[in-house]
Structure formats: C-alpha cells, structure tokens
Amino acid sequence: MGYLCLGLTVTPPKPKLVLCSSRHEMEARHIQRAAELADKSAGMTSPHPNSGCVICRGPNVNVVVGEGFLYAQGTKPAELQAIESARDLCRGATAFLNLEPGDSYGDETAVSALVKAGISRVVVGLRHPLEHLRGKAIHTLRGEGVQVDVLGEELQSKTIEEALKYCLSVNAPLLYRAAFQVPFSVLKYAMTLDGKIAASSGDASWVSSRLSRHRVFELRGRSDAVIVGGNTVRRDDPRLTARHGGGHVPVRIVMSQSLNLPEVANLWDISEARTIVATQRGARKDFQKMLASKGVEVVEFDILNPRELMEYCYDRGYLSILWECGGALSAPAIASGIIHKVYAFVAPKIIGGAKAPSPVGELGMVQMSQALKLSDVSFEQHMPLTLAIILQIGPDMLISGYLHPIPDMSPVIPSLDETSAIDPSVKSYDVRILFFYKAWDPYGALSNFSPHPLRMPDGNGNYVTWPTVEHYYQAHKFVGVNDPLARECVEKIKSAKSPEEAARMGRTMEKKRPDLVQPEWDSCKIDVMYRALKCKFSIYPHLNLMLLSTAGSVLVEASPHDLFWGGGREGEGLNYLGRLLMQLRSEFLGESSTLSHTSS
C-alpha cells in the first residue's frame, strides 16, 4: 500500500500498513517518505532546511501512525506535527527523520517533543550539516535513553544507501551552502536538438513546450533568486516570476557590468517580486538613481563576477539560486565553480545556424577529454508519449545532473568534549563582534524570525499572541490606522504561516500602499521593536541567559541589505537591532546585579 500525500500538516485518518520484503527495505521506505514530505516545503518559504517525520509502530515498524513536515523556520517542527497526529500511539513507536533536528539555541522543541511523547527509537537520515548543530540533537536524545540509529553509521545496506542518497538530494542546497560557503546554484536552459537556445536572429519563443515551461516555473518557485545577464533583459524582457498562484516568489537578479540596460523593462516593476541589479562600482550613476526611484535595489561590486555575486548571495542567507542566463554568462559561472547542477530541456527541433547562440559559451577547452561530466544523471519526458502522438508534437526531454557531487558531511562528528561557551569577561581592548542573521546561526535566536511566540497587550486591555517578533513588528506598521484594509493587513500578517511570509506581506503593502502605514511609524518603529524584544527575552529564560552570556561582545545583525536594522555589507549599516539587544542586555544585567545586592 502506498503512502498518501496530503497538505501542509499531514494527518493520516487512520494507521496505514506498509508492505515490504525486509526490515531494511521497510526502514528505507520510511526515511524516503520523510524526505518526500520534507520536499513539500521547498520554495514555499525560504530559506530553511527541509525536514520531515514519519512515526511508525508494529513489530516490523510497518504501521504509519503520524506524519508531518517543517513549513519554514519559525513554524511548528515536523516532529511535533507527526506526534500531534499520532497522539497516544507515539509511546514505544519509532520516528523516522530525514534530517537531524536543528533547533534554535536552547529551544529543543522537536527533541523534547519526541522524548515527552514516549518515542523509543529515532532513525535519522542525515546529521545536521551545520557544524554548531551537527550531532547535538542525536546526543541529547541518546542522553534521554532514546535509541538513535543514523543511516550509514548504525544502519548499512544497499537499500539504506539509496535512502541516504534521497536525503542528500532533498537538502542539497543546505549541504552545498555549508560545505562551500556559496548558495546551491542550478543552471537551467532550453535548447533544440542541435544545441541552440535561439535562432540566428535571436528569437527564442518558444524553444521548449508549455509543459516544460511550467516545470521552469516550479524551479523558480524553489529558488531564493533567479539570475540573468544584461543580454537576456535587452533581448527577452523577462518577468522571471514563478507564476504558480502564490507562495514563495524569488528575487530577480540582473548582472550587468556597464548597466547598458533599457529604461523600461518588466524587471523594474517590483509589485510582484523584488529586483536586484548587480553592477560594477561607479557604472551609470544616473541610471542607478532611476532604478532606485522605482524600488530596484542596486548593488555595486569592485569586481563583478559570478563568484563575487554568489558570496554576496551567501551573505544574504540565500540557499538556492537558479541561473537562467545565456551562454556569455553561463560559461564564466561554470568556470568559476559555482554551478552545481544543470537542468537542460531538449526540444525535438532543429533550427541550425552557424551564429545561433548555444547555452554555454567559451570555456577554453580544446579536447573532448577536458569536457565536464555530470554525475547522478536523470532523464525525464515532460509529456506522455500518447499525448504527444495525439497532438502531433514531440515531447521535450529533461536531462539533469550534478557538476559537483552532493557533499556528504555526515562523517564529521564533533567530540563530546567540544563546547561553545561564551566568556562574558571580554576586555575593552579585545572586543569581540558576534554576528547573527538567520535563525540557524549559532546566535540565531537573536533573530526576529526565531520561533518564539509573544503575548503582548493590544492597547485595549487585551493580550494578543504573535507567532514571532517579526509578525508583531510588520503588523504594527498598520495598527491604529482607521481603514478597513489596514485592519485586514494586521490580521493577515498576524496569521501568516511563517515570519518570512509576515515580512513579505508587511514590506509589500508598505510599498504599494504607504497611505495605510501609521503616520508616526518612522519615529515609533524603534520603540515597537524594543517592546517586542523585551517581551521575548523576558518570557523565555533560556533566551535571557543566552543574551546575558554575550556580555562584553558587540552584537551585529549581519544583514547585508538592511542598513537600518542591520550592519550592512561593509559595516555601513546603523545596526539598530543589535543596539536594542545590547541595550536590553545592559538592562537585564543591571536588574540581575540589583537582585543580587538585595538578596545579600
């Protein structure tokens, strides 16, 4: 009996029996199912690890009683969803996880939920790829008496190897980012059977079929950013939207050294998606001002090349990048080693033309033995053959594979003696700077996106629960405005499924309808943030202790693009979030000192 694919919170109506010939095959199936569930969140909101959980019972662990997957950081963990689905059937059951839990500092929701539910055994597909989280949850579970088996370590067989490979592919973006300090980059192109991406005239409408283009929209929806070069903007005037009716919309990035770009282009319309233009420092300042007036972000580089751009995207926290460029840009991207996977849509057409462009430009190779070879190659047809015959058209072929193998970081296991204790007695002449940005960072719980709900007064004597600080902050842009649409914005942001979505809603509405933002927002937003932060670090003791442990260090939110709340790319930001946290730290330390003197 197969598994049943459900929605965001997977709640099987009744236990399901899964038939397999051996226990190893059974456990491999459950791990693959956890990975399949995890993959459901790819592109819904980003960036975050993809994690799923399947809870099973029975002497051969062949009865599925609960399932779940993580929607985004700051939302309910996959393990907790599966436990809530299985309820009392958890006691003595086995939980299958495609990825080791990676909770925020001190907030072991997934781990504690597994222990409290009475799970007796946990099977983990991959240790967490981030060094400060790797092995932490496994060690904690084992310390609580839970048996933990890791694929490739305690469990080994041919079927287990296949399941492990599946776990690697589902979290490939996170693994590449952790191993190479650049986002996972995919090069996508569509070409004719004779290797052309357009006719000699430059016309490229359409090389591939409608079904193939729909698959491209899916690839965009799974990416944090889509990159094109100036030639693509001038020739095709693309929109580069996901066009899937909601969910995650990637940032559009244009690489252009000279800024020889049209003044009117679809990408300059940021109502659907944000646009970043990466250029050489000093290029066409007047054109930069024009783009900025439209809300397009311009980032200048001393040396603009694919490697520098990817390092910048890494600093912004991006996990996955889709390159939809022509051969002039794809060649240097491949040559710089930052393209990890290729998706080639091959249409059963021949266009010819000695000067017709090809998908990859000059790489400097003169012998076939120098050719780059793909690994883990797969072939897919994007139209059933019977339908192709009826429509009298040939189905496109999708060929995909990796230019660089997926890094398997599981053998790197930290010793039990390793610690990450913070010395609070830092001298003024030896000041340390502690950077934080994403919720998965070592100090990620300092982020507004960390999964810590707040209970705050609403001004009418009532208390309202907000999922995260970011939900509270974004919604308060519109609080108090006497307009039904403003009140609707507050409720939509409050119920957003993740802090990323709350931020996207608040920022988008602020740009589209500045008249709905409360008039005193610029003067009161720091106080709004302060109240939310004080509540967060007051009601969670472990967060308070973590903040106090940073005493003597400068706290900097390492956002490269938010020059108000963050520190900026080159330290030019105002870092108001870091300042507020340090102010709170000083206040809490003062209170602690006062309490100490009083008690003595």
UniProtKB/TrEMBL annotation:
Per the UniProt record, which EC number(s) apply here?
1.1.1.193
The pathway entry for this protein reads as: Cofactor biosynthesis; riboflavin biosynthesis; 5-amino-6-(D-ribitylamino)uracil from GTP: step 3/4
Q: Does the keyword Hydrolase apply?
A: yes
Q: What class of enzyme is it?
A: oxidoreductase
One GO biological-process annotation of the entry reads: riboflavin biosynthetic process
**SUPFAM superfamilies noted in UniProt:** Cytidine deaminase-like, Dihydrofolate reductase-like, YbiA-like
Query: Per the database record, which ranges form the CMP/dCMP-type deaminase domain?
Result: 25-149
Q: Which UniProt keywords apply?
A: Glycosidase, Hydrolase, Multifunctional enzyme, NADP, Oxidoreductase
Query: Catalytic activity, per the record?
Result: 2,5-diamino-6-hydroxy-4-(5-phosphoribosylamino)-pyrimidine + H2O = 2,5,6-triamino-4-hydroxypyrimidine + D-ribose 5-phosphate; 5-amino-6-(5-phospho-D-ribosylamino)uracil + H2O = 5,6-diaminouracil + D-ribose 5-phosphate
- List GO molecular-function terms, semicolon-separated: 5-amino-6-(5-phosphoribosylamino)uracil reductase activity; diaminohydroxyphosphoribosylaminopyrimidine deaminase activity; hydrolase activity, hydrolyzing N-glycosyl compounds; NADP binding
Q: What is this protein called?
A: 5-amino-6-(5-phosphoribosylamino)uracil reductase
Organism annotation: Cinnamomum micranthum f. kanehirae
